[in-house]
Structures
1.
Amino acid sequence: MEFFIQQVINGLTLGGLYALIALGYTMVYGIIQLINFAHGEFFAAGGYMGVILLSFLAAHGYMETHPWFCLFGALLLTMGYCAMLAMAVEKVAYKPLRYASRLSVLLSALGMSIFLQNGLMLTQGVYDKAYPTEFTHGGLDFGLITFSYMQILIVAVTIALLLGLNALVFRTRIGTAMRATAQDKVMSSLVGINSNRIISTTFAIGAALAAAAGIMIGLYYGSVRYDMGFVPGIKAFAAAVLGGIGNITGAMVGGLIIGMVEIFAAGYLSSEYKDVWAFIILIAVLYFMPTGIMGENVDDTRV
Amino acid sequence: MSTTLGSRKVWLYWAAGMAWFYLLLWPLMGIGADGAVSFADSLAVWGYVAAASAALLALRQLHARGAFAAVTSPLARGLAGAKTGMDKVPPAVWWSLALCIAAALPFGSGRYVQDVAINVLIYICLGLGLNVVIGLCGLLDLGYIAFYGVGAYTYALLSIHYAMPFWMALPVAAALAAVAGCIIGYPTLRMRGDYLAIVTLGFGEIVRLILNNWMALTNGPNGILGIRPPTAWWPSFEGTFGFELIQMKKLTALYFVILGLTVLTTIAVHRLNFSRIGRAWEAIREDETAAELMGVNTFRLKLLAYATGAVFGGLAGAFFAARMRFVSPESFTFIESAMVLAMVVLGGMGSIPGVMLGALALVALPEVFRQFELYRMLAFGGAMTVMMLFRPKGLWPAKRFGARSEEMD
Amino acid sequence: MTGTATPILELRDVVTCYGRIQALKGVSLSVMPGEIVTIIGANGAGKSTTLMTICGITPPQSGAVFYQGQRISGLSPDLLPSRGLCQVPEGRRIFPRLTVRENLEMGAFFRRDKDGVQRDLEHVFSLFPVLRERRRQRGGTLSGGEQQMLAIGRALMGRPRMLLLDEPSLGLAPLIVRHIFSIIERINKQEGVTILLVEQNANLALQLASRAYVMETGRVTMEDDARALLANEAIKKAYLGE
C-alpha cells in the first residue's frame, strides 16, 4: 500500500512535467497544425540553462544565502531564454514555410531538432551535467511514504504554471486571440489580429513551459544530457494526442495519465520497457479514438 | 553600405537577428561550470556566423539586382546547353558508365576508400528503400531504421545459431523485414501525415528498446559477435579444377556483394516506379482522397509500399551484419533514421539518382572533412532545414514529383 | 452620388489571381462616404474575391486599392480594422468555439479603450437583443440568423467607418433577412457607416442600395443607380427572376 501511494506521488510529479511539455505541442498544433519536432529540444535547452544558471549562482555563493530566490530567478530566466529560442526557431524554420507542403515543414522541424540537439552537445559536451542539488535534499516523512521537498516544489510550480496558462488562454485578450487564430486564421486577421505575432507568442509560451519542465527534471534527476529532449518529447506528444491534440485541458490530463502509467509500469511490470508504454498508448489512441479522450475534432484538414 | 547592397530594411532585420542569435548563444558558451564568465568563445563563433551570413546576404542581394548577370546568364545558358546535350544521350548510357566506374573503383584504391564506398552503397540501398515509402508513396516514415535492424539481427542470429549461409539468410531477412513492415504498417497506415511520422518514430524506438532489452535473444547492448561473412564458390586451380567455398573477408569481395545488392535494388525501385503500382503510389502521394475515389485501394497499397521499403532495408541490414560481423542496438538509433531521411530529402524525394547523390554527399563529404567530424550532425540538421527553405525538391529533383503542386504556385 | 469629392474606397484596375486563374480581371469601382453600394452578380463572378482583395487577404496582382485616399493594397490585412475598414465575410466565419461575448470582444481586438468597448458591446446587444441572451453560449451553437447577427455585431465592435458585407442573406429565412437588412440600413442611416454590400439576392440589395455594380466573370459589366438597375430589362431577366 505504501509502495502504491509512493508511486502515485511519483507519477503525479512526472505526469505534471509531461503535461508541461505536452502543452507546447498541443498549442502549436492547435494553431498551425504542425508537430513541432524541435519542442523536445526546447525542453533540453531549459534543462541546460537551468544547470548553467544554478551552477553560476552556486559558484558565487548565492545559492547558500538565497536558495529560493536563486531557484525562481533561474526558472524565470530559463523560461525567457527558451521562449526567445523558440521564437527564433519559428521565425527561421517554420514561418517561411507556412504555405508550403506539410512534409516540408515537418522535415524542416526535424532538421531544427537535430541542429539544436547537436548545438547543445557541441557547446555543453556529450556527458551528463550535474545539477547543484545540495539544497534539494530532505523531505516530509509520513512514516513509510516520503514526499521530498523537490517533489513538493515540482508539483507546486507545475500547478502554478498550469493555472497560470489556463488563466492566460481563457481569461485574457491575448488568450482569446490565440484561440480565435487557431479556429480561423483568415477571420482573425479580418478583425485585426496579427496572426504571425500570435503564432510567435504561442511558440514562446509553449517553449517557456517546456523549459520549466526541463529545469525541474534536471533538479529531480540531478543531471541533464544533450539528448534528453528526445524520449520525453515523444512521451509528451503521446500525452497531447491522448488528450486530443489542440486541447489544452486534454494535454494536462494526458500528461498525468502518461506519467502515472509509466511509473506504475516501471514499478509493477518491468522497468526496462517503461519507455514503451507511452508509444503503445499513442498508437492505441490514434488507432481507436483519434480525437483523444477529451474529443477535440480531428478531421482530414487537421491531420 | 546599405544603399549599395540592397534595402536598408533587410540589413536591419539581419542585425536584429544577429543580436538575437548572440543573446541565445552567449549563455551556452559564455558561462562556465565554475561560474566563470567569458565572451571570447561565443564572440568567435558569433563572428564567423555573422560574417558568413552577411556575405551570403550581400551576394543574394546583389544577385537579386542582377549584379552577376554577366557571369550567371552565360553560365546558366551553358548549363542548359550541356543539359540538353546530356539529355540526348539515353539514360542507359549514363547508368552503364556509372556502373563501370563503380565496378572499377576497388581496383587500385586502398582499404579506406573501399570502406567508405561500401558505406555509401549501404546507405544508397537504405535510401532507395526509404524512397519507396516517402518519395513514391508520400508516407513520412521516421522509424525506417527498424527494418535495417530487423534484417541485420535476422542474419546475425541465423548465422551464429544455425550457421546459415549469407545467401540463404538474405531472403529470410527480407521476408522478416517485410513481415515487420506489415506489423508496423497495419495499425499505423490509416493515419495521415504527421501522425504517421510520430507513430513510426515510436515503433522504431520500440524495436530498438526490444533489441536492447531482450537479453536472451539479442544479448542486449553488448550485441552479437562472430557473424560469418558471405561465402562464394570460387574457381580453384589447385590440383584438379573445381570450385571451392571461400569466405569473403576481403573488402573488395564485400564491395562487389553490396554493389550487386545496390544494382538489384535500383532496378527493382525503378521498375516499381514506372509500374501500375508506382502510379497508384504517386496518386496517393499527390492526393490520397482523390486516389481513393478513383478506386485505388489506398490502405493495401500503402501497406505494400511500407513492406517494399522494409524489404530493401532488411537486405541492406543483412549485408551490414555480414560486413561488420557484429551487430548491436547502437547502430539502429533514431539518428540513423534521420540520416537516411536526410539523404532522401537532400537528393530529391522520388528520384533515384537524387537519392544516390544524397547518400554520396552525406557519407563521403564527412570523410573529406574529417577534422569537422563533431559538426557532422549539426550540419545535417541545418542542411535539412535550409534545403526545405530554399530547394524543397532536392538537389536532383524527380521529374514527375509534385508536378501538380508546382503548377499551383 | 453624394457631394464629397474623394471616394472613401476606390479600386483601380485590380487583378487578382488564385494560382494561374484570374479571379478578378481588372476591376475598378468607387464608393463615396455615407453611401450604400452593392455588387450583384452570379456565383463565381468574383464578388467575394473583390472584398477579400480589398481587405488584403488575397492581395492584387496588379492595380491598387485606395481607402480614404491612401493606398492599402499590399498592407497586411490585420492593419485595416483599426483604420475603420471591417468585413463581415461570406459564411459569417464565427469563431465556433469562442462564446458570443468573446466573439464580439475579438471584433474590438485592436482597441485599447475599455470603456468604449463596453459601451459598444451594450450597443450591439441593444441592436441584437438575442445576442445578449446567448452571450455565454459558444458561437458554433447559434442558428444561422443569430450567427449573421453576431458577425455583423462583431464587425461593429471595431467601430467601422466602412463595412464590407458579403452575402448577409445567405441561407436565412426571409423574415430574418428582412430584419438584418433593416439593421444594415439603420447602421448606415444612424451611424453614418459606409456600406459595400455583396449580394446574390439582387432585388433586396438594389432596394437598399443607392448605387450598384454588376459583376460577371471577374469584370464589372454595369454600373448605375440602384433604382435604374431595378428597372433595367436585362437586369430584371438575369438577376431579378422576372
2.
Amino acid sequence: MAQLISLMIDDKPVKVPEGTLIVNAAKKVGIDIPVFCYHPKMEPVGMCRMCLVEIGRPQIDRETRKPVLDEQGNPVIQFGPKLETACTTPVSEGMVVMGMSDKVKKGRQDILEFLLTSHPLDCPICDKGGECPLQNLTMEHGPGVSRFLYDEKMHLAKHYPLGDLILLDRERCIQCGRCVRFQDEIVGEPVIGFEQRGRSLQIETFSDPGFDSYYSGNTTDICPVGALTTTDFRFGARPWELKPVASVCSQCPVGCNITYNIRREARAGGRYVIKRVLPRQHEEVNEIWICDKARFAGYQYAESPERLTRPMLRRNGELVESSWDEALQVVAERFKAATGGLVTYAGGRLSNEDLFNLKQLTEGLKGQAILKSSIGGGVLVAQMGVAKGTDLGKLGAGDAILVIASDLQEEAPIWWLRVKQAADRGATLIVVNPRQTRLDRFATHTLRYDYGSETATVLAMINALESKKTRLPDWLAKYRPNRFQTAAAKAFAGAKNGIILFGQEGMDLPRSQELALACANLLFLTDHLGSPNNGLIGVWESANTQGAWDMGFRPSTELKEMFSSARAVYVVAADPAGDDPSLADALEQSEFVVVQELFLTSTARLADVVLPVTAQPEREGTYTTGERRVQRFFPAIPAPGGVIPDYEIAARIGERSGLKMENRAASLVFAQLAARVSDYEGLSYRSLAETHEQWPIIGRDDLYYGGTAYENTQGLGVQLMPSSQKRKIFQVNWQEPPVRVSGKGLLGVPITRLYDRGATVTPSRSLASRVPGPFILVNETTAQKLDMHNDAPVQLMLAGSAYSAMLRVDTAVPESVVLVPRSLGIPLSELQPVDIRVAETTPA
Amino acid sequence: MLKEIVRGLSTTFRQIFEKPVTIQYPEVKRPVRPRFKGRHILKRYDNGLEKCIGCSLCAAACPADAIFVEAAENTDELRYSPGERYASTYEINLLRCIFCGYCEDACPTEAIILGDNYELSFTDRRSAIYTKEMLIEPVKPGGKPTPQKVEPGKFTRSIPDMQDPQD
Amino acid sequence: MSTFLLLRHREIPNLDQLDVYRQHGGFEAFQKAITTLQPKEVTDEVKASGLRGRGGAGFPTGMKWSFIDNNNWPHYVVANADESEPGTFKDREIMEGNPYQFLEGVMICAYAVQAQSAYIYLRGEFWQLAAELDKRIQALEAAGLLGDNILGTNFSLRLYTHLGAGAYICGEETALLESLEGKLGQPRLRPPFPPSYGLYGKPTIVNNVETLTNVPLIVARGAKWYKTMGTERSPGTKIFSLCGQVNKPGNYELPLGTTFRELIFTHGGGLKDGRKVKAIMPAGASSSIIVATEEALDTPMDYENTQKVGSVLGSASVIVIDDSVSMEWVINKTLHFFKHESCGKCTPCREGTYWMMHISDRISRGQANEEDLETLNDVALNIQGKCLCALGEFSTMAVVTGIERFKSDFELRLAQNANPESPETVLAAVD
C-alpha cells in the first residue's frame, strides 16, 4: 500500500498515494488543471506547457532536515522561480499548488495565444467543433483577440489522408504528440511520427498502407483538436446534434463497450441513423479503446440496403415474399412434424436471449442445438474460466499470461493490447505459436511447434513441471519437454497468477477441445484456477460464442451427416452453405431448411423459409464475453419495418408448436434465462446496468483530459463465476490426443484475419478497401519451389475443388505450410493437405 | 346643443377630405424598414458559389430548433461552396421560426440572412418546411449555378474576410 | 612553459600526430590515472580544480561526474562536439589541431566514471572531422591505448564517433542523447538528469569538448596548479572565439578573468576602420547583449562578473558589434536562427520563435509600428519561464535586452521606409 501524501491544491487539502501527479491529484478533489499533451493513460511529457502552475514546497533546513517554521508554526513555503508543469511533477509532502493565481492565469492565456497563432479559423467546418478541448479551454482561459497577422500564418496540408480511415489536418495540429505516443507507448506500433522541426513539425505516416494499425481510430478520440478525424464521420453531424446510446461491439469475444451516436437523417428519410461509434469507458474490459473493426464496421451492416425485410416461402422452386403469420405457421407445422429430427444451427452473433429461446424450442422439439464454431472448449471455459474479478489491466510483474495457438491481434485486438500492456508492466508473457505474430516482441518466452502439435506442447510443459499434485497418466511421459518448454512451464508455474488464452490459429474442433483440456490441466497443476486473474479464456470467433456455450449449444464435427439426415434444419445467424460447398450439398438433402438471417446468404438462397431479423444495433439483449462478463446492449436505431428479433421468432414458432415461451421482451426472456441457467443465477437487466466510478475519470465535461470516449452510465455488466471459483470443483480429465498422420506436401492451415468477408463486415463502406479478396500465405522457399512469386493469382486445390486466390509471400510462415484465412471464400476448416496450381488464364 | 352637434359633425365631414392612411394592400405594398426580419435567404457569392458552408451554427443558435442542416464534402468537380464543406440538406421549419435573427448573427459567412419577404402562408405543416432549393437566392448575373466545376486549389478557404454588415 | 593549455598545436607543430603528442607528455596522465589512481580519486581531483563546463552552462565538472548513479550500469561518456552556437568555433580548432588531448580527456573521464563506451557526438557538418577522429581512434587502438584491458589493467574502453544531422538543438544534452539513440532530436524532461538517466536510460556524463580537453592537464599537474590560473570561482583558461567586426577574429586562449578590452584590443587588434564598439554578445546568438560602455569593456570575462553587466558568459563566443550596425538587424538574424532551430516540442518556443521572427521581419521591411515593437517584447517575455529547455529561454535574451538597451535602433528602423536591400530578402533564400 503506497504511502499517502498530503498537500494543498488551491486551498483544498488533498491526500493521495505517493507518486501521483499533481494533475491527477487535483482531479480527485474536482479541480481541473487544463492539459493538452497529457493523457491519463500515457506517460507525461510536459510538452504543451498548458498545465503550468505555481508550486511551493516547504523550505527544509539543511542541517536538521526538517521544515523551517514561521512565527505561527506553519512551514515556510518556498515557491519556485518559474511555473512548473503539473503533469510531470509528482506530489510531495506539504506541497502547495496554486492553479488560480494571476501568474498561472496569464501563463495559460499566453500558451493559448501561442497555440492559436497558426491554428486555422476552422471551427465552423471542423468535425471536432462542439467537443473540442481547444475550443473549451480557449473559452475558459484564452485571450479574446489575437495579435498575430493572418498573412503570416503557416499553411500546411488540410485533409491529408493517413490511410483510408483517418484524415489529418496539419494546420490544426497543435503538436501535442498524443497520437504518436499512443501508437508508440500503448500499441507499440509507431506507424506515425513527427517529421521536420520547429513550426514545421508535422505528423506523417511511415507505413504503407498509411496508418496501418488496427487501433488507428483511437487517436481521433484523444486528439485535442480536429487534426485527426475519421473518414466515416467526416461532416456527419455536430456533436450536440447526436444522441448517445450504449451498446457492445458484436464482432469479437472481447466485448468492447461502445456508444452509438444517432441522429435523424434527411438522407435516410427522417429515420434515426447511427452516425459513428465511440468507445465507452470500461476499465475491466476495453478501458477507453476500441479497434477499427468496431469503429468502422460494427454497425454499417445494419444500414445496408440488402437487409431482408419480409419473410419468404419457397413456392414452385422460387422464394416468394409472404406474411409472418403464414411463414411462422409453415415453420411451426413442419418443425412439429420433425420432432426428434430437428437440427438448430446457430452462430455466435446471437444474443443470450435469442440462444436461450432457440435452445428451449429445440429441446421442446427434441432436437439438437448445434453451435457454429471452429473451436471448442466452451464448457471447459465455463468451468475453468477466469474467475469473477479478473481484470487484464491489473496483471503485471509476478503474473503470467500464456497465449497459445492464436494470432491475438487479428483475433481479438483489444485483448492483444491488454496483454501487451501487461507484459510492459512486467508480466511474464509466454507465446506459443507455430509462426511469428505481433505478440512475439513482448514475449518473455516464445515457443514454436508444428501445426497440429499444440496439445503435445502443452502436455510437454505439464510433464516439465514434474508435479506431484495428482497422479499423471503413464502416456504423458512420452511428451518430453525441451529446455524452452521447461523454462516456460516453470515460469508459468512460478507466477502468482496465470491466465491461458487459446485461439484459432490452425485450429479445428477436435484439436481445440484437446488443447483446451490440456490447458485446463496445466492451470490446475499450477494452481492457477478459482481466483481472480487466473483461468482459461477462449478466443472465440464471434462476440457471443461463450453465451452460446452457456445456453447449451455445442459444436459438432458431423455437420454434413447431421444436415443431410435431418428432418428439419433451422439455421440462425450462420451461413453453412456459404462457408463450405459440401455443407450446401448436405443441406439440399435435408427435408426442410429454415434460415433466419439479416441478408440473403447462400444458405438463405437454398432455404425453404427465410425469416428476416432485427440487427443488434436495433434491439436490446446481452452478450457474454470470452472473459465471461455478461453485458447489456441497448437499441440505437429503429429496425426496418417487418423484421422481428430472433428470440421472438423462436418463441412464436414455439408457441405455435405447443410450447410455452416468452416472446414479449428481451428482459423477460433474460429473467427466464437467469432462472434456468445456473451460472446466470441472480442476474437481471437491472444488475447488469449497475455502474461504479471508474478511474481515470473520463467522459465528463473535461474532455480535454481523457478524450471523447463516453462515460459509462448504462452498465458495467456482471462477470460470471466459473465453477472452479464457485464450488471449487477442479475436475481433471486426461485425454491422450490421437495420433494423426501428417502427409507429405503442402499442409493447409486455417487462420483468422481481423478484416474478413464476414456478413457483418463486407457491407462496411469504410473498410471496403481493407477487406481483402481471397488470399493464401506461403514462405519464400515454398513459393520458389512452386515457381511462383508474390501477388500471383493461383488456384488452391482443396478436397478435389479449386478455389481462386492470390498467393502472398510471408517470411513468418513455416515451410510447406499454406495459411488460409477463414471467411474469405476458401472453405478450409481443419488441417488438410492442399495443393497450389497456377491460375488458368481463361476467365471464369 | 345644436352648436355641439354641428361641431362634431364638422369634424366628421372634414374627415371626408383627409387623405386616407389605408394602404391598398396587396395592390400597393408598403416598403419594409431596413433590418426587417422576413423570410430567410441563403446568399451566394458573386461568382455563384453558395456562401453556406453547412456548419450548423445557425441550427445551434436557433431558440426554436427550426433549422436542420446536414453537411457534405465539396470536390473540385462538384463545388457548391468555397472550402471543404457545404450544406447538402438545409431545411427551415417556418412554423417553428420566430424570426428572431439569431441564425443571421451566428452565421460565420453571412450566408443566411433574414430578407424582406413576409408573405408566407401554408395550408399544411409539411409545406411549411422550406428546403435549400426554396431558400437559396438565384444566381446573380456573371455567376454560374452550383454545383460548379472549378480548377483545383482555387477555392480553399471556407470563411472569408468579413465586411461590416449591411442590410 | 607553454602559453597554451588547450591550443598547444599553435606552439607545437604536428601535435595532431600521435607520436608527436606522446613526445610532449601525451597520455601520461591517462596512464597515471588508470594504473595508479582510483576512479573516485580522479573525480575528486577534477572537482578540486574547480573546472567548470565550457559548453555554456558553466556547471562544475567534477561535481557532475560525482553525481553519476553507481547503482545503475553500464555508464556512458558522451563528448558534446555539436558546436552550433553562432560565433563558436573553438571545439573545431581543438579537434583539428590538438585532437589527442581531447581524446585523452574523454578517456580519463570514462575511467573516472567507469564507462566502457564513450561517444563523440559531432554536428553533421563536421563529417570530415569525424572521419579524421575515426582514424585517430584507430591509431589509439593500434597503440594499445583503447580496447580491452588497456595497459594491463582491467579497464576496457571503446570510443565511437557519431554524426548529427544539422540541428542546433542537439547540442542540448538530452536532445543529443535522443539523437544518439536514433530518435527525434528533442530534449527530454529534466529531472531526471543524464547522470542518473542518460543514454538508453543509463547514467551518462555529457561534457563539452573544451571541458574534456582540460582534464589531462589537471590530472597530470594537479588541481592546485590549475587554480593558479583564472579567477577564484572560474579557474583555468578559456578559449574565446572572438568574431564580429574586429581586425583579428579567431580563437584566443586566455585565462578566465581577462577583460573584454584586452581580448578585443590587445589580442583582437581592435575594430576595423577604427570604429567604436557598440555592443558585445558574449554567448553567441543566445546572449544578453552588453552595451559597450567603458565599464563594460573593463569587466573581467568569467562566469560571475559578466552577470554584473547583465549578461552571461556562456560558451564565450564573443561577437563584437560596432556602431555602424543596427541592433535591430542583429536581432533579426538571431530570431531567424532560433526559428529555424527550434525543435518544436514545446508550445512557447515553437510558436513564439516563429512569431517573433515574423514581427522582426516586418520591422526590417518598415511595415511595422510602435505597437508591433511592444508586441515583440511582450511575446518574448511571454516565452520566458515557460519553455521545456534552454533554447526557448535563450532565444528571447537578445530580443529583450536588445529592445531594452538599444531602443533607438529599433525606433530608427520603424521610421524608415521599406528598404529593398533589407536582410530578409537574403534570409528568405535561406529559409
